[in-house]
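Whiteboard transcription, Tuesday session. T.W. wrote the C-alpha cells on the left side:
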C-alpha cells in the first residue's frame, strides 16, 4: 500500500485552504508536541503502559512551566482497543494530567488510529459540552494572522489509513491477541536464557 503523493497533496492543499481550521499564536506561547503515544488498555498488548510514569513526569513539568500541549494524532490506539477501556485505564493518570492544563491549553489533532473523536466525549477536556470531533490540522499564525506552520498527523494520502482503514483495523485487532506471545519469543531476555 503506502503513501499516494497525489492524494496527500490534494488533502494537504484542502487543509491549507480550510478557513475553519483551529489557529494558535506562534509568538508569545510555548508548545510541547506529543504524537503516536497509542494509549491502550494497560494489558500486555498496550505498548504505552511502560512509558506511563515518564509521560506523567513530562506533563507535570510542561504544565508547571506554562506550555500548551499539542496532541498531534494517535494519542489513543483505537485500532486495537475500545474507547471505554482506554479511558478507564488512563483516566486517573494521563488524562487527569492533561485535564490539569485546562481546556484552553490542550489542543488535539486527529490521527489515523484515534480518528473516532466525532463520537465520544474527549477525556482530556474537563467539562466537554458535547461530543466534538478533533481537528485534522492546527495552524500556527503570526501576529498578522498569516499561517507560519500547519501541523497534521501525517496520514493524509496513506492508503492503509484512508482507503483500507477498515482492513488495517481488523488486522490490528487480531494481532493484539497474538502480540504478547510474539513479544515473548523475540524478547532479548528470552534468547539469553536459551544460550
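and on the right, the sequence the group agreed on:
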Amino acid at each position: 500500500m503506502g503513501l499516494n503523493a497525489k492524494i496527500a497533496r490534494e488533502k494537504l492543499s484542502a487543509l491549507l485552504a480550510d478557513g475553519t481550521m483551529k489557529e494558535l499564536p506562534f509568538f508569545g506561547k510555548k508548545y510541547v508536541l506529543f504524537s503516536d503515544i497509542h494509549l491502550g488498555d494497560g494489558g500486555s498488548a498496550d505498548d504505552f503502559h511502560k512509558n506511563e510514569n515518564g509521560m506523567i513526569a513530562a506533563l507535570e513539568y510542561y504544565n508547571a512551566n506554562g506550555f500548551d500541549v499539542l496532541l498531534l494524532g494517535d494519542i489513543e490506539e483505537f485500532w486495537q482497543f475500545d474507547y471505554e477501556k482506554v479511558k478507564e485505564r488512563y483516566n486517573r493518570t494521563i488524562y487527569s494530567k492533561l485535564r490539569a492544563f485546562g481546556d484552553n491549553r490542550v489542543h488535539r489533532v486527529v490521527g489515523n488510529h484515534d480518528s473516532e473523536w466525532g463520537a465520544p466525549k474527549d477525556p482530556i477536556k474537563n467539562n466537554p459540552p458535547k461530543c466534538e470531533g478533533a481537528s485534522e490540522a492546527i495552524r500556527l499564525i503570526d501576529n498578522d494572522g498569516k499561517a507560519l506552520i500547519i501541523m497534521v498527523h501525517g496520514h493524509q494520502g496513506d492508503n492503509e489509513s484512508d482507503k483500507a482503514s477498515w482492513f488495517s483495523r481488523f488486522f490490528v485487532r487480531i494481532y493484539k491477541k497474538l502480540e504478547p506471545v510474539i513479544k515473548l519469543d523475540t524478547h532479548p531476555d528470552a534468547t539469553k536464557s536459551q544460550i
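Someone added at the bottom: The two ends are 39 Å apart (CA to CA).
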